Please model this.
Amino acid sequence: MEENALKKFNTAKLISFAIGFFGLQFAWQMRIILSGPVTESLGASPFLFGLIWLAGPFTGMVVQPVIGALSDKTTSPFGRRRPYLLGGALLSALALIAFPNSGQIVNWLSAHLHITFPALAGLFFAAIMVWILDACVNIAQGPYRAWIPDIVPQEQHAVANSYISLAIGLGSVVAAATAPVLSRFFHYQMSIEAQFAMAAIAFVLGMTWTCVVIKEKQYVPQESEENTKFDFMKSLKDFFALSPEVGKICWMQFFTWIGTMCMLINFTNYCIHTVSGIPNLSNVTDTVKASFEAATLSATNFASLSMAVFNLVCFLIAIPLAVLSVKYGNKKIHILSMVSMAIAYLGLAFTVNKTAVIAFMALSGIGWASICALPFAMLSQYIKPGTEGSVMGIFNIFIAGPQVLVCTLVAWIIDQCVFTTPNGINNHWEYTFLIGAFCLIVASIIASRVKEIRA
Model:
């Protein structure tokens, strides 16, 4: 598609374009907030929890580059990117429903198949569901990002990415706030299973809306490329040949996402164990677990409320950040946003006051809005037409790869840093914010060295 053939998106079309990502983020937010309590109840220690989270980065590093490249060459009657968006949503919905019911599913299989499963079979089944969920989210997410240079004029790339950032914020707010609001104002505690089912419905409906409303031109392969196969090493070489600045943007993303995932992966457990003082329940009796059930649910609601505030700020600041980035440049606004997030992390590391936690999470939301939009806008300046999917897929390696360090090294550090309380053994979950703040500062320094193209 030639650049001059792209029509400018109006506000209504930008909103319709972003609705699918609203559903995707709704589902992902449930995964972020509630996977910790689900897996800990099945026996996962902090380190095992980190290993289960490896599903995200591994599937991201493998799935997104391959699916992105395939979507570049897809010639289906449904379009170039849409089959991956809708297919990923449908498969994710199944995993979302099964994941919180893993223990019950294993028990049902045991009763009907007359097989005695190992004690951790429920945890193993839950891990499989997480891997399926993360793989399918990546199937949808890569082509979604690649869709922007396909159908949106270049001068609107930052705005389109900011609408995605807005959708991420709003989807996360609704997902995170539903259970606390129902509990606080309507005295109804929504079960974890019901919250995951709600996420599955939101993902499918949101993605269906976008796929129906947003049209895309059919991809017509040239004769010279009809038999071309995906060559990852060639794609990687071509990716870094785009510009010397691409490498700097990738390293910026690498450290940014170590810092980001330190919070996203560990925040709920931080609220449960550090802020609320509930001990590690992964290796205690059912009686002890039951005695902390109400406190754990209350702490989980607080984590959800804090994440709702975090994402509300992301939602409110997304469009103003886009306006500021047009005026002052993507780089300057992104650096200021990341520094504000690092300051918030340092505050979270040294407080257990719930009001302060919410305030620092609100400040972090500014950085999150920028992270969800401006690095992609910075990279899109260097993308060649016809390579959008493969470029965004490879770029995702520098989002997914850092998560491996968080899921292994950071998880191991937290697992090893234990202390004794009157209620039992606990872990220093607050250490995750010290590591995260350091990495965000490093990312800001690297970003300052990027030579930005100004229109």
About this structure: DSSP finds 18 helices and two strands in the chain. The chain has a mean pLDDT of 85.
